[in-house]
Specification:
mainly beta
């Protein structure tokens, strides 16, 4: 049988809300599981972290474009809409 990979979002942390720059961050922590019921050495667990900053670094012209979160889960988009308001 093939190895299956599952990711579980375990924690969401929001930082930088009080910074004068307005560049807050949504940090996502995931638990990753690799498993094959026919392999007695599995499952194996790992973790990964992802940071999504509201503003990307300045482009060469001084603009601070906002991060594109359209590919994120709806929960993350909802959180960003809630906290990333002016």
């Amino acid at each position: 049988m093939a190895i299956t990979k599952t990711e579980e979002l375990t924690q969401i942390t929001i930082t930088g809300l009080t910074e004068s720059s307005g560049n807050s961050c949504i940090r996502l922590d995931y638990r990753i599981k690799l498993d094959d019921p026919e392999d007695d050495q599995l499952p194996i667990y790992s973790t990964k972290m992802k940071e999504i900053w509201r503003y990307l670094p300045h482009d060469g012209e001084g603009l601070r474009p906002e991060a594109d979160i359209s590919g994120e889960d709806q929960l993350i988009q909802d959180i960003a809409a809630l906290i990333w308001t002016d």
